[in-house]
Amino acid sequence: MKQLPDEKTLLSLLELAQDAEQKAKSLCDLTAEIDEKWRVRLESEHQVAMPKSNGESS
User: Fold this and answer.
1) Which of 50, 51, 30 is nearest to 42 (CA)?
2) Which residue of 16, 33, 50, 56 is 20 to 30 Å from 44, comparing CA positions?
């Protein structure tokens, strides 16, 4: 029969898992910030590149 890890090992694994979770959350937040920055930038460039139509045809 397999033996379960001792409490010290389990606590160490839990600490590693919590650290990994925090790093993943930080990375997710960073990617969201970068996405928002580029989304706004590209949308504003798209608006500048497209001539505004005022309903008149040439």
Assistant:
1) 50
2) 56
- Helical spans, DSSP H, in the chain: 7-49
Looking at residue 2, the DSSP 8-state letter turns out to be P
Q: Which of 17-21, 37-41, 52-56 has the highest mean pLDDT?
A: 17-21
Whole-angstrom distance, CA of residue 58 vs CA of residue 49: 19
Q: What's the rounded Cα separation, in Å, for the pair 20 and 27?
A: 10
pTM across the whole model: 0.64
33-49 residue pLDDT tens: 999 999 999 988 888 88
